[in-house]
From TrEMBL:
Domain Copper amine oxidase-like N-terminal: 1-95
Highest classification ranks of the organism: Bacteria, Bacillati, Bacillota, Bacilli, Bacillales
Gene3D superfamilies attached to this UniProt entry: Copper amine oxidase-like, N-terminal domain
Top-rank taxon: Bacteria
Database matches in InterPro entries: Cu_amine_oxidase-like_N, Mao_N_sf
The protein's name: Copper amine oxidase-like N-terminal domain-containing protein
């Protein structure tokens, strides 16, 4: 997890696990991945990459950490053609290479800036930089989340405003969750105004939905998990 909250994964490990070949050009600082009939090229620290000569954009640039090239998790879905889901409760990334019809919903590519996650309409790139991930309810059942929401407190990024993120959280929850329950969630969130403030895990319920809010000192962010009740 890099400072803007984006998840990155080691490119060679993931690519080779999917049967791809990976080549590194140290002079040009460029990686070439060959998978089936596809050729993917990307340069370190750049968001752009090419797939069979056609240029695409990642949501953040690739990085090198201790000699290992890391790429945004979205890249795995867009360029390598896998279905990717991120289970924040169990801190696990699932990468599924089965591209049968029922598994074609990848991490969504931006389309008019919005997508639908388990019935909730989500702005994929909000101005507040609120992070919203689709849970695994539809894949693994009721013990898994509908939504995984992260409010970030990053002193190094002046564009991040937790108050605006709280507003976006409220707008998302009000789409489905009872207004009184949402009001209780927002009152609880209002107690955290700095990265140092902690919110012990607390559960809020209405007839149909359960919302769990927590913030730990270890990462400073607020995690909000939405379940089907």
């Amino acid at each position: 997890m890099i400072k803007n909250g984006r998840v990155q994964v080691p490119l060679r490990f993931v690519s080779e696990a999917m049967g791809a070949k990976v080549q590194w050009d140290g002079i040009a600082r460029k990686v070439t991945v060959t998978l089936g009939g596809d050729k993917i090229e990307l340069s370190i620290a750049k968001k752009a990459y090419t797939l069979n000569g056609q240029q695409f954009q990642m949501d953040t640039s690739s990085i090198v950490n201790h000699g290992t090239t890391f790429v945004p998790i979205r890249f795995v879905g867009q360029a390598l053609g896998a279905r990717v889901t991120f289970d924040t409760i169990h801190n696990t990334i699932h990468i599924d290479t089965d591209n049968s019809d029922e598994n074609l919903e990848q991490i969504p590519i931006k389309q008019d800036g919005k997508s639908v996650y388990n019935g909730f309409i989500i702005d994929l790139e909000p101005d507040s930089k609120l992070l919203v991930g689709k849970g695994l309810y539809d894949t693994y059942g009721s013990e898994y989340t509908l939504l995984n929401i992260v409010v970030t407190f990053d002193k190094m990024d002046t564009d991040i405003d937790y108050k605006k993120q709280y507003e976006d959280v409220e707008d998302i929850l009000l789409q489905k969750v009872d207004s009184e329950t949402v009001a209780a969630v927002m009152r609880y969130l209002s107690a955290k105004t700095t990265a140092e403030d902690m919110l012990p895990s607390k559960e809020f319920k209405d007839t149909n939905y359960k919302v769990i809010v927590s913030s730990r000192m270890i990462d400073a962010n607020v995690n909000i998990f939405v379940f089907k009740n």
